[in-house]
Amino acid sequence: MSDTKPEHCLILKRIGIDTYREHVAYLHRDCPLYQTEGFRALSKLEIRADGQAILATLNIVEDDRLLGASELGLSTSAFEHFQLNELTPVTVRQPQPVNSMQAVRAKISGERLSQAEYNAICQDIVQGRYAKEELAAFLVSSAQSGMDREEVLFLTKAMTDSGQRLNWQETMVVDKHCIGGIPGNRTTMIITPIVAAYGLLIPKTSSRAITSPAGTADTMEVLANVDLPMEKLRSIVHEERGCLAWGGTANLAPVDDILISVERPLNLDSQGQMIASILSKKLAAGATHLLLDIPVGPHAKVSNMRDAIQLRKLFEYVGMHTGIQIEVVITDGRQPIGTGIGPVLEARDVMQVLSNDLKAPADLREKSLQLAGRILEFHPDVRGGSGYMLARDILESGRALEKMNRIIERQGKRPEIDLAELVINVKSDRSGRVSAIDNLVLARIAHIAGAPLNPGAGIDLHHKIDARVRKGEILYSVYTGFQANWQFVHQFLHEHGHGYHIS
């Protein structure tokens, strides 16, 4: 006679609730299993059916209209992951203990973790075994205790191995990344079509914003679909030599996307996690050569050259031990790049540069050409120092715009999105010269205005550093779509100021 306790069957039901990448299950409070099996709200369930299994966080329902006592509800993400029909019988049980939490507790205590421990943590995360508070504990402990360079390497490898790795069957696959912190710095969307027009392979899979008002994927989504199935992404890259897509659907380092979903509300972006996040995505995307932009400025992520050089060495160490050639460029991070902050406004700036429009922001154009030139110089046929002129020729000839338009069409052109309707014109309280701009304040204002969730929200800058302004002159305009955001922006401006220093 078996001592194994039988699993209990419930009837599957889809509950139309978007829980954003978190699998959530719902049981009725009167379900016999709720008390007899020791289930509790926010605990984990293991759900099985037809040879499949998922882990989900349990929520308890008291409304008979939503769920019956013999039913198991699944949130949208969990139901789609299961790919089963409603009314399918499923079994539920307590999951096995998450053994890797011992390593997280060790990290909380300030201990150093091994490759095996980071592997175990990442595998448990990607399998859905961690609750949100446990993910937060891992992220905060890593940020507070810090990681030495070997730990950053261990985490990078573990995150890379959490999903699939692309192989483009080419000896050179280039990529570009900026560590962030500079509003409006949308050079990637200009560099990619320039490099692809030359013929180098640049499959650009980008992330959405973590702490900024827009990531490359958020801004590209104004122009084209970025949520591409793997087969379509491969087809576009092979035909156009490049793409500008979101990396989340390609199952590239998927543990990174899970961690980002927790980092975003915590406004957390620690150095070790940042390096592992960036390089794991690049390695999984099949990159062999990476140009890395580290902006330095008083209100950037990196405030001084000493820290920038230290960060460069750490990137180069991890790159050397993971097989990706990295060139680091340290750039001016004293102020936003371009004039728009927020998806719609940044997309406008990008298309102005690609169209050789006279109104195009000169700083965005120049920085994009400098970085694109450095990438072109990865190719053995491009002599050192000649990449800039080559990139400029591709841009001015219209080849970059033509390439961008083809990528947009292939990814799926989106209808035009308008700017948000409510406008706040922020004016100078004195006459003088703009001596400094606080990137953090402007990014925060654009975020409060609704960017990037509302793509039409953001900031349109009218003056940059060294500009002369008169008292009462508009420094920038804030666009927001909702009255509540409008009020929040006004409150922030009243409490923290406009972020411009006039001398």
Low-confidence stretches: 1-6
Instruction: Domain count, please report it.
Output: 4
Q: What is the percentage of strand-forming residues?
A: 15-25%
Average pLDDT, to the nearest integer? 93
Shape: globular
**CATH class designation of the largest domain:** Alpha Beta
Using the CA coordinates, give the radius of gyration.
25 Å
Helix content: 40-55%
CATH topology of the largest domain: Pyrimidine Nucleoside Phosphorylase, Chain A, domain 2
N- to C-terminal distance:
86 Å
Tag the structure with descriptive keywords.
503 residues, alpha/beta, Barwin-like endoglucanases, Pyrimidine Nucleoside Phosphorylase, Chain A, domain 2, 4 domains, 6-stranded mixed barrel, 4-stranded antiparallel beta sheet, 18 helices, 41% helix, 19% strand, globular, disordered N terminus
Task: Give your account of this protein's structure.
By secondary structure, this protein is α/β, with parallel strands linked by helices. It has 18 helices and 18 strands. The strands form 5 sheets. A 6-stranded mixed barrel has the order 1-5-2-4-3-6. A 4-stranded antiparallel sheet has the order 12-15-17-13. The chain has a 3-stranded parallel sheet with strand order 7-10-11, with helices on both faces. β3 and β4 form a beta hairpin.
Q: How is the secondary structure organized here?
A:
Elements: E1 8-14, E2 24-28, H1 32-36, E3 44-49, E4 52-61, E5 71-74, H2 76-82, E6 89-93, H3 101-108, H4 115-126, H5 132-145, H6 149-160, E7 174-178, H7 188-198, E8 202-206, H8 216-223, H9 230-240, E9 242-246, H10 254-266, H11 271-284, E10 289-296, H12 305-322, E11 325-332, E12 340-341, H13 343-354, H14 362-376, H15 387-396, H16 399-411, E13 422-427, E14 432-437, H17 439-449, E15 458-461, E16 468-469, E17 474-480, H18 483-496, E18 500-502
Parallel strand pairs: 1-5, 2-4, 7-10, 8-9, 10-11
Antiparallel strand pairs: 1-6, 2-5, 3-4, 3-6, 12-15, 13-17, 14-16, 14-18, 15-17
Helix pairs in contact: 3-5, 4-6, 5-10, 6-11, 6-12, 7-14, 7-16, 8-13, 9-16, 11-12, 14-15, 17-18
